[in-house]
Design brief:
By secondary structure, the protein is an alpha/beta fold. It has a domain of 114 residues: 3-Layer(aba) Sandwich (Peroxisomal Thiolase, Chain A, domain 1), CATH 3.40.47.10. The strands form 2 sheets. The chain has a 9-stranded mixed sheet. The longest helix has 16 residues. It is globular, with a radius of gyration of 20 Å. InterPro entries: Thiolase (IPR002155), Thiolase-like (IPR016039), Thiolase_C_2 (IPR055140). This is Acetyl-CoA acetyltransferase.
Amino acid sequence: MPDHWQSGAFSVVGLGVTEQGRRLGVPPRELRRRALDAALADAGVERRSVDGYIGTSSEAFDDVRYLGLAPHFAWTMQAGGATAIWSVLNAIGAILTGQATTVACVYGTAPTAHRGPGYGGFRYGYPALYGLIGAAGAHALHARRHMHRYGTTVEHLGAVAVAQRAHAAVRPGTLGYGAPITLDDHRESALVVDPFRRLDCCRDTDGGVALLVTTTERARDLPGRSVPILGLGTGHNLRNWWTGEVYDHHDDVATAKATAFARAGIEVGDIDVAALYDPFTISPIMQLEAYGFCAPGEGGPLHAAGQTTVGGLIPTNTGGGQLSGYYAAGFTAIVEGILQMRGDGGATQVPGAEVALVTGHGGNGGVQNTWSHATMLLGAALPGAA
């Protein structure tokens, strides 16, 4: 076990992804069981070797018996859409402090099984008292602020939706598979909250994802293809609320970026593919700007020019993201980052990709748009043991 965290010293050695979709008819706990089983098989790891468990669903407290595990610890955590990356960070911390050697980070929910008419969405802090309820309304304020400052247009938002659907349309297993859209389709979709239309918004889906985290040294002795973790960083947009800039920043990306990139020893120009948390179309626009792939205000035109597709400046959400792929919270982005680093991106694989940027976003801080942010940098997969 390394005595301190060096870039690449830890890896994701197992990836398990269940069917993703709406109204699958599978209970959440069974989704988590199937995801874990798939991750164990992918890594070539025996169930008894998993000695740490981090659940990322609120109902996962008593999972371990059903999952057949006997870990040294089992607990849940929640930071909204940043939870996935945070679970990996905490898995590394547990291994560093000698609490475990292999930690399973497991997600699995079935929200479409019980949400029906009248579902009101999440209430983020005191603004809910005045009718500002749900993530769409909160992110719409980001979008309107960006439009006011930089001239971003509805067509720019539509370009994000079209580009990500084009990726999903050729990736089996996504909600958008075989169903590309046009800017006209975006323009004609129902208005949800100004300026967002239906195709600007992601949809809840049922599904499970499991990751197995261990040291890269141990991973080299396993048959699975491990993906090294080059860097991790976090930030919280409440910092910008205190200065009155909360709507000018999608998140406190600067802090998260600085920590992760310094740990990895890389720069933005080293990134080959981006897997960004994308609940709404404004999110990839503002994140690409914040990370420095383009100047402030140029994220919309970057998408409109086709620079976020495979072969473009920065291929982004090559699996369709949450907008057109599936919504597994922050695990959607991690899955795509791992697939790209393994060369398993199918029709939208980025040739020669060696470094992936993965982001997470969520866990409101009691005031609208005070989300936490998480940055993960992944490296090209290492071959498994012969």
